[in-house]
Amino acid sequence: MDSTFILLVMTPIVTNKIFGHYFKAFAMLSKLIIQNIEITKSKERAKKTRRLKHNLINHNTNILQELYKLIPQDSFKAGSNHIDVIQNGISKDHKKSAFTYLKVLKSSNLMKAEFDVYEMLDKDNPDLNFYEHKLHKVIILTLNPFWLDLVENKVNIEIQASMEKVNIDYKTISCGTLASIR
């Protein structure tokens, strides 16, 4: 059995008046879509900004807590020589001072990474700057924020001297490494 299907399509005649109505409707709809996109973008920017602020406040709080654990805030009395107070605090416990230094260094590096990540994600087309870097230096700088964690976990790392070079965007590498530990 051979079946035949016939489709009749009627195209309405579009007059200038009808076209004008379609055009006005499309113009109104496109304005609403554009407004919705702008509102969504604004909400996303606000969300990213709140996250950045929250993370920076946490890192800053960690830094202040570590410094005040080493030398309590009430050690700084009016009229006292603050330099002497700090020197005495450091000389009392060199190991604790070294740990404090590493904790502050880690939080400072995390703060820098927060700014770099925010800046990178805020751009539609982030700039990548590929340059040659000494591999040894890249490894050392990447591990810097983690030394305390490695020491506390009794992880011994031996990094041999090397003159090898690598072509990378260092900021991306360092941001990715620091962002991954949050």
Explain the overall architecture.
With 182 residues, the chain is mainly α. It has helices at 16-70, 82-92, 94-122, 135-143, 147-152, 170-179; strands at 131-134, 165-168. A two-stranded antiparallel sheet has the order 1-2. The radius of gyration is 30 Å and the shape is elongated.
Our measurement of the CA-to-CA distance between the termini, rounded to an integer number of angstroms, reads 70 Å
User: What order do the helices and strands follow?
Assistant: HHHEHHEH
Strand residues, percent: under 5%
What structural class results from the helix and strand content?
mainly alpha
State the major sheet: 2 strands, antiparallel
Mean pLDDT: 85
Give start-end ranges of low-pLDDT stretches: none
Key attributes of the depicted protein:
182 residues; mainly alpha; two-stranded antiparallel ribbon; 6 helices; 2 strands; 66% helix; 4% strand
Describe what is shown at a glance:
The chain has six helices and two strands, in the order αααβααβα. The protein has 182 residues and is mainly alpha-helical.
Chain-wise SSE layout:
Elements: H1 16-70, H2 82-92, H3 94-122, E1 131-134, H4 135-143, H5 147-152, E2 165-168, H6 170-179
Antiparallel strand pairs: 1-2
Helix pairs in contact: 1-3, 3-6
